[in-house]
Each structure stands twice: as structure tokens, then as C-alpha cells.
Design brief:
seven-stranded mixed beta sheet; two-stranded antiparallel ribbon; 6 helices; globular; 11 strands; binds cytidine-5'-monophosphate; alpha/beta; Spore Coat Polysaccharide Biosynthesis Protein SpsA, Chain A
Length: 233
């Protein structure tokens, strides 16, 4: 068997509603650079990927203005209405190049603070695994189940000892991930990350502990935090 290759998929077709900005969050700037450019350059420069597919919104008008659009390592495809549709679209766009056992790493466009050591640990921990896994961070806060009241009231404290926050990249074998996403979408399963599709299809992705500062820029306050984290890396 030939050595599996490594592909990077970056879903960047979201419109970032929670950010309340005039452009999607991956096109907000930190230190004058687009978040998407920071995410792509940091990730691609940290591991020997064989190629990269970025899923873009059909009405995206910012991409041509990015540094990444001139990077020969990167190709683009049309994203879908949900994150999982965008990832599946990128996987299909890789079909002519990717083998069934190749590795696909899916990384959110809005996570610019990925540390090189986390990416290396993810790859080295999983490269001999049959299925794959994801970066994740143990939950640190005490967790409450809230009621439906306004304001919500604490109904109980949830045991956090086995709970993890799912981060990205998530790294899976190409054919297994395509099958899992197709199966989950056909069955109307909620697929908020690749791991949830793999779990639905009966696989058990490995949780590889990653740094908790690999944050996803989601609300306006995250932008300054991401800028600070990047200045410390
Ligand atoms: O909205 P959320 O924070 O879950 O988005 C996570 C990632 O998925 C972002 O990089 C976003 O651009 C991407 N996404 C996508 N296609 C969608 C929705 C989100 O590529 N339809």
C-alpha cells in the first residue's frame, strides 16, 4: 500500500450571523490580515499537506482579495447551506485526487490560533489509526442544565468529568468520512462537526487533547482575544 496523503479542507462558506458584522467572520481582520488568510497560512505552513480545498459561499466577493487566492497550494469549491454540506462538497471536489485511505483534516476557517504542536500531535497520534479523531479540550467550567424560563434557572449541575470541547482540525480517512457524512445527512442527523457524523455511523473517533486557546471566532469579543492569543504564539 502506498503511503496515505494528507489533504486540508477548510469550510469557509458560513455567513457568521452571530458576529453581527457587515462581512462573514472569516473575512474580519486581525492586524490587517483576513482571519481566513491567517488560518490557511498557519495551517499549511505547519504540516506537509498534499493539497487544500476551501469551500466558499456562492456569493463570496472577498476571496479574490485574499493572500490565499494567489497560493498555488489552494483550490476552491462551492460550499453548501450547512457546514456539513460545505465539507462534503470539498470532499467531492477532491475525489479525482484522493485515495480511500488518504487523510483529510477539516479545519474551521474561523480558528486562526491553531498551534503547530497541536497539529503535529494530532497527525502523529492518529497516522496509524483506522478511522481518525479530533483535537479536543477537557471542559474546565462547572456545567449547569438551564430551564426554559427567562432568565433561565439552574436545574442541575452536569458531571463534566468525561466531557470534552470538540475543536478542529478533525482528521479522518477520506472514504470513511465521505460515507459517514452522506449517511448522516440522508438520515437528517444534526452534523455540527465531522466527528458527529463518524459517531453516527458507528465509529469511535480518538480525542487528542489540544490547547484550549484554539478558539473559534464566533462573537465580537473573540476577535480581540484571538489577536492576543496570536501575539503570544
Ligand atoms: O457557523 P460555525 O461557527 O459553526 O462555522 C464553522 C465553520 O464552518 C466556519 O469556518 C464557517 O465558514 C463554515 N461554514 C461553511 N458552510 C456553511 C456554514 C458554515 O463552510 N454553510
Amino acid at each position: 500500500m502506498t503511503n496515505p496523503r494528507f489533504w486540508l479542507i477548510v469550510p469557509a462558506a458560513g455567513i457568521g450571523q452571530r458576529m453581527q458584522a457587515e462581512c462573514p467572520k472569516q473575512y474580519l481582520r486581525i492586524d490587517r490580515r483576513y482571519i481566513l488568510d491567517i488560518t490557511l497560512s498557519r495551517t499549511l505552513d505547519s504540516a506537509p499537506f498534499d493539497g487544500c480545498m476551501v469551500a466558499l459561499h456562492p456569493d463570496d466577493c472577498w476571496w479574490p482579495d485574499t493572500e490565499a487566492s494567489g497560493d498555488s497550494r489552494i483550490q476552491t469549491c462551492r460550499g453548501g447551506s450547512e457546514r456539513a454540506d460545505s465539507v462534503l462538497s470539498a470532499l467531492r471536489a477532491l475525489t479525482p485526487h484522493a485515495g480511500a485511505d488518504d487523510w483529510v483534516l477539516v479545519h474551521d476557517a474561523a480558528r486562526p490560533c491553531l498551534h503547530r504542536d497541536d497539529l503535529t500531535r494530532l497527525i502523529t497520534s492518529l497516522q496509524n489509526h483506522d478511522v481518525g479523531g479530533l483535537l479536543a479540550s477537557p471542559v474546565a467550567d462547572t456545567l449547569k442544565r438551564g430551564s426554559n424560563a427567562t432568565p433561565p434557572e439552574a436545574l442541575e449541575t452536569v458531571d463534566r468529568s468525561s466531557l470534552w470541547r470538540a475543536l478542529t482540525p478533525q482528521m479522518f480517512r477520506y472514504a470513511k468520512l465521505v460515507n459517514a457524512l452522506e449517511q448522516a445527512l440522508e438520515n437528517g442527523q444534526p452534523v455540527t462537526d465531522e466527528s458527529s457524523a463518524m459517531e453516527f455511523s458507528g465509529n469511535m473517533p480518538v480525542l487528542v487533547e489540544g490547547r484550549p486557546d484554539n478558539i473559534k471566532v464566533t462573537v465580537p469579543a473573540d476577535l480581540a482575544l484571538a489577536g492576543f492569543i496570536l501575539s503570544q504564539l
